[in-house]
Structure formats: structure tokens, C-alpha cells
UniProtKB/TrEMBL annotation:
One of its GO terms (biological process) is proteolysis. Residues 27-151 form the CENP-V/GFA domain. Keywords: Metal-binding, Zinc. InterPro entries: Aspartic_peptidase_A1 (IPR001461), CENP-V/GFA (IPR006913), Mss4-like_sf (IPR011057), Pepsin-like_dom (IPR034164), PEPTIDASE_A1 (IPR033121), Peptidase_aspartic_dom_sf (IPR021109). This is CENP-V/GFA domain-containing protein.
Amino acid sequence: MANGFAAADKSKPFITNNSLAKDRGYKDGLPTATCLCGGVQLAFPVEGPGLINTFVCNCADCRKLTASMFASNFAIDDKYLVHVRGRDNLKSWYNPVTPVRHEGSMTDYFCSTCGTLMYRISSAFPNVPILRIGSVDDLSLHETKLKPQWEQFTKDRALLPFSSGAFFENNVDALRELEIPVARSLHALKPFGKRRSDKLITARSDNRGTSPTRTILDGTDYAIDITLGGKTYAVLFDTASSAFWMPGANFTCVDTNNTAQPDSACGFASNGPEEFTGGRIADQNFQVTYISGEFATGAAGREDVTFAGVTVKNQHIGLADRAYFDSQNGFTSGIMGWGLGNYTTFYPGDDPKLNNKTDPNHTWIPTNTWILNAVEQGLLEKPMFSINIGNRTENAANLSASGFVAVGGAPLEGLPFTGVWAHSSITPETYAPWGLKNKYTHWNVRPDGFLVDQTFVPWNPGNFADGGNEIFTVLDTGSTWSYITNETIQVIAKAMQPPATWSIPDTAYVAMCNATVPKVSIRINGTDLPIAKRELLLDGWLGQANNSTTLCWLGWQPAYQPPRGGAAPYILGDTFFRNVLTVHDVGNLEMSFASLKWN
């Protein structure tokens, strides 16, 4: 074995003498995998579409076969695998029942002379040979293009994790290994076929365990049904805030000048209760202000609130007695936040004019959101909830069903899973204008970067101007678009053909609706999650830029800047959520993302 590989330049081939073959390394430009005696040699691509994935497997089958604790593998589309020589020298051994799955089969192909395992083929994927990374002659590829991106059978792992991602052949394996309970049932998302142009960012069922969300305005917002005081209301579903409020029965609707208007001007579907059934909370007020300029003020109190058949007792909630709101469109009656409770809309005292996020005597009061109370009150099978807001393809046309929120687990089937999962821990946030200092506040993630075709754009978020801390990235179902670094969106815009352009009047990128869109993935903790092209360049009602039939909005835009200056957090909004099943682990403050591929 040659010495010095650890310090070698991995951008150059590094061929060792670990085979008797003299021609090992590359054949007609393709890297090779050669057996020990040199009698069998394979050639293969190290990029898509021929290269499907690279992964570490901890299953008992791979342990037995390798006489080790794991196997490092890569999967190739059979059409791209070249048998350079020795195909007749391969011997196969058929295992009708693998010890892992107790179903299906696996056929192993060995060199009949030296016994080197060259590849395996599963009956579940008969056109996908699985090769061992260790058999590849160029060792530089082991740590570059063939470096494992996922890990499977992680519960059986004997060593520390190799990757934050995982690849699973089916969702049964995924949920079992990730210890995610199967949701009891799923309720359909009910879309509303009305149109809205929206670029706002907030600062923000009968079957137990799951509940419908409802698309508002062709994928611009999502609503869930809750019950309190014996009445059911639709409220905006918002993962990026801890605000829970409704318009009171006798609230006053106002305009931007705080002048009273008809209730219909605020667009709520209906008003909430006149009073709290659990009573008002003394010496406390409710106030929320959004970057859009919308606001609501009122009283704080307690209600028993039922969602998805789960009833939380004494939930903290605000009833607005005064509100300026122009984005409800007659579909919802307030907002229900599913954040982590450390940045709320409740303040001490009865006078909202004294509220001040940066004044310790008048700052917000930490309170549990509905999901935190459901966990604290022991109402869930496991402290988590999962989301998919559905495929927008069919919604506007026929009001078809799609999308859900499931509490206590995740769905076993019904979504187009690719088998790829990414995982990330939630991090505490510091942001002086919100009075945050090292608090777990939002469901957040720090991307590694974005892969645009073959160009990787590292994530360089920068720092908040006032506090010096890194700008964080929030997952927000209440945001129609996603807002990322300007550096990233410029690369995406230029990769379109013709390129997308910046519209100064709209402060947003637009492109020809028939533009060619690049392949884009967001990389989270080492795992790439592809973004559907129709979420990059929006189509249908949602995509039309200022009612144009030829220009469409990009679904990913530069980070929104508040009108008063400064910097806002980055946002992964609905154009991100539609590409994944998102599992929010409340107990461990972690998130998991299952990649989806809609037809």
C-alpha cells in the first residue's frame, strides 16, 4: 500500500498497488474498480445520471458480507456500468431472504479467482448494481465524488455517524430507524381558488393526530381548523411565529392611519369569541406587529383549543380589539403560531403603548405555543409534528386534496418519497431588535449552501448590523416565497435561460415564464435536497408577475429588507416546504427533511 494518501492532493488521481492489474485507474475516461487479481474490471461514471447515490450501510447483511461493522457503497444505473473485462469470471451467489428485511433477495457477484466482491443487486432495484467504494482504484474518489452522502440502518450503527443524511429503500425503514411514529391518518388540504399577489414576511379533524390544512389563494398561505368555545375557526398556519390570536367578537378594523373601517376591510372569515372561556389574564396585553405594517392589539386570556382531535387545556391566546389587516381575504380568522415560545406577542401591563422588546420591564412574556402545551400535557405519542403542504400542480384547477399537519408522527405513505433524508439541529438565536439573546425561538436551519447545476454556492449569511451575530434562517409556512442570500439567488438567476432579471419597481427577480430552469438543490448538513423547477420559477396564478402572461416571479428571492432598515432573517418558505416532508422534533429540538419528487 502506498504511503502518504492522507496528505495527498485529492484533486488528482491517487492509484495504489492494491491490485495485480497494471491498467487500473481509468478506462476511456471513466474510473475503474478492479478485483485483487486483476481479472475483473468495471468502469462507471461518478456524476449523474449514471451515479445514483453514495452511502454507508450498517445492516447485518453488509456486516456479514464485509466481515466488518459497515459497508461503504455507491449505486450505479445499470445502463452506465461497463464490464471492461472478466464478466465471464464473475460468480454469483443468490440469497433468497436477506437477514435484514425478511423479504426480497440479494445477489452478490464475486471474482471467481480472488473472491473480491464486485457488486450486489437487490430484487427491489434490479437495475441498480451496488458497488463497494473500497474497490475503486483511484483513492482520491473515495473522499471526493464517491464520498458517502447518506447513511442507512443507523439504529444498528456501531460507530459514530458518518453523515447527517440517510438513504432508505422504503419509508417503513425510514420511520422505524428514525423512531418516528406512523401518523394515524391524514386529512386533505382544501385549496381556495382565488388569487393574491403577496410578498409579505411576518416577524412573527375528526381523527386524532392529523388535521387538514387548506391552501389559500393557490399556494400563497395555508390554514388549519381549530375549535374553541364550541365553534370551529380557520386560522393561518404559521411555523415561524409563536403568536396565537384571533379578532374578538367586537374588534375594530382600522386602516394604516388607525382610522376605523368596516370589519370587512380586514378580511377575516369571522370574528372570534366575545370573551375567553378560561378567563382573561390580569395585567397582560396582546400586541403583534408585522413587517408588512399590519398589526393587532387586545387582551390575553386562556382557552381550551382542539386541533386534530387533540385538546390543549388553558392555551394562551390573544383576542384583538383593534387590528389593521388586509391579507386575510375572507378565509381565516387569525393566526396560530407553532414556534418555540421564546418570542411571543404577550406583554406585561394593560397599555400596549408601553410594550418594548428591548426593555426588560416591558418586553414580551415567554409562553407555550399550542404544540408545546400538547407535548407538556402528554397528549402526543411522541413530541413532534410533521408537515407537507402538498403539490401545487393540481390545486388551482380542481380544488384537489393535498397537504397536511400531523401531530405525534409522520405519514407512512401517500407522498413521493425519494428515500433521501437530511437532519439538522435547531440553534438558539440572538437578535437585539426582538429582544432575543441565545433563545430557542424559531424552527431554523443553517444551510451548507446550494448546488446550482454543477456549481456549489456556499452559504455566507453575514451578520446582523446591530448585534454582530450571524443572520439565522427560519422555516416559515406563512411565507409564500423563500428568501436567501443575494449571492445565491444571483447564481440561480444567471443560470436560467434566458437569465432572470431584477425588477426595480417590484424589488424582485422575474424571468420569462418559459425560461429554462437549472437543477438546484439546497444542501443541509451534507445532504442535497432538490428543489422542483416549478418552485424556482413559479407558474400558474402564483407565478404571474403583475398579471403578465410572459413574465413570472422566481419563488426564491433575496432576503427581504424591513422598510426601516437593518436586516431580516432568511426564510425557507412554501417554495421550500413543497419539496419535502418536514418533521419537527420538539423533544430533541431537531428537524428531519424527507426529499420528495412530484410528477
